[in-house]
Amino acid sequence: MDANDNDLGISIGTILQNTLYFGQKDLSQGTSFEAELLDKLLGEKIKSSAVDASDLYGEMTDSLKNLLEIKNVPEELAELETKKSNLNHNISIFEERGVAEKLSKQTAFNLDRQKIDTIGTEVGTTIEDIRSCLENITISGNMFDGYDSKYNADEFEKAKGLLKSIMKIIGNIKKEIENADGKYTEYKALLDGLDGKIESLKGEFAEIKRQIDDPQVDIDAYPKLKTDLQETEGKLKKLSESLAGKNVFENSFKTALRKRNELLQKQFKSYGVAVKKINDSQPELSVRLEFKGEKEKFKEYLKSDFRGSSIKDIKYQSLVEMFSDYAALIEDVLIDGGKKCKGILTDTEYSKLRERIENQYQELLTKVHTA
């Protein structure tokens, strides 16, 4: 109750567990004391918001991790396209001179072997990745042993049964991986069979080369050009598929960021209700809030986190006026190509800023302020 016997809506548990004495002098020392006071008053509401914010933080960091893994893909694709054009040009020379047709059988054997080998390598890597994942499983079927529930025995019996079922499924997966590994051994043996066929045809291939008798072309280079082309096209396809996920990762980050901002807005409104009750309950103290208004704190973060980047104070000030927090800054740099930042920083300054963000985005995203 306040001085007029109005209920302030503050639980007794909050008062007893988080007793906080304060006055105008305390509040005038900075916003950290005010934030602590509000957190004390709101209690469990803030804890609940923190759990939700943690989930959204995970979504944002996962999206950025995936984006950074493919950030060099456009340049790699351009290089591979150039390589593909050069290979096709060199191959066309052999085709124009009639060499390609005569070497078609040898080339086909080489391409077949390469295809089986390339896919086999991916299969082997996949099997090892799954096996490694299974080896890191820490759950076991006896995790409930020694624990008895006084009031929820039925639920615990069901939980024990479900856990055993889960462990049985995991056990079956382990057996299937061993079976897959055996099949993979058979798969690799196919290469030995192909190598034997190629070896038996060496004489035939050598005779064809002698019949070509064209000193202006390197006959041995043609089969290698064809296998290089197949390998390059495979890499192009794989990289193009990975790049297709770029929009998905970007949208995932933006969605998580929007939800996080909505969560912060909700938290801010809760702060506002608590502040109004404080201000209305007495005339001596007055607390004022502004959403993400702690610009000086954000500026301190920037100057500390980007020390050595040669960015001047006036530009830091422009950054805090442009961006409400680190999440907004990171969105501009890693999602939107630095459109806003580049209007403030030089190319060198922006390059240093981006590099630091790429290396520290997980830490920087944790520095969130609501008021």
Percent of sequence in beta strands = under 5%
Evaluate the radius of gyration: 33 Å
Q: Helical residue percent?
A: over 70%
Mean pLDDT value: 84
**What would you call the shape?**
flat
- Please provide the ordered H/E string of secondary-structure elements: HHHHHHHHHHHHHHH
Number of strands: 0
User: Helix/strand-derived class?
Assistant: mainly alpha
Q: Largest sheet, if any?
A: none
Low-confidence stretches: 12-28
- How many separate structural domains? 2
Distance between the termini: 26 Å
Q: Total helix count?
A: 15
Description:
It is a single chain. By secondary structure, the chain is mainly alpha-helical. The protein has two domains: 12-66 and 248-365, no CATH class; 98-213. The chain contains 15 helices and no strands. It has helices spanning 12-17, 24-27, 31-42, 44-69, 73-96, 99-102, 104-135, 153-200, 202-212, 221-243, 246-281, 295-305, 313-322, 326-335, 347-365. The longest helix is centred in the middle third of the chain and has 48 residues, at 153-200. The radius of gyration is 33 Å and the shape is flat. 13% of the residues are buried.
Task: Give a quick summary of the entry.
The protein has helices spanning 12-17, 24-27, 31-42, 44-69, 73-96, 99-102, 104-135, 153-200, 202-212, 221-243, 246-281, 295-305, 313-322, 326-335, 347-365.
Q: Key terms for this structure?
A:
371 residues; mainly alpha; 2 domains; 74% helix
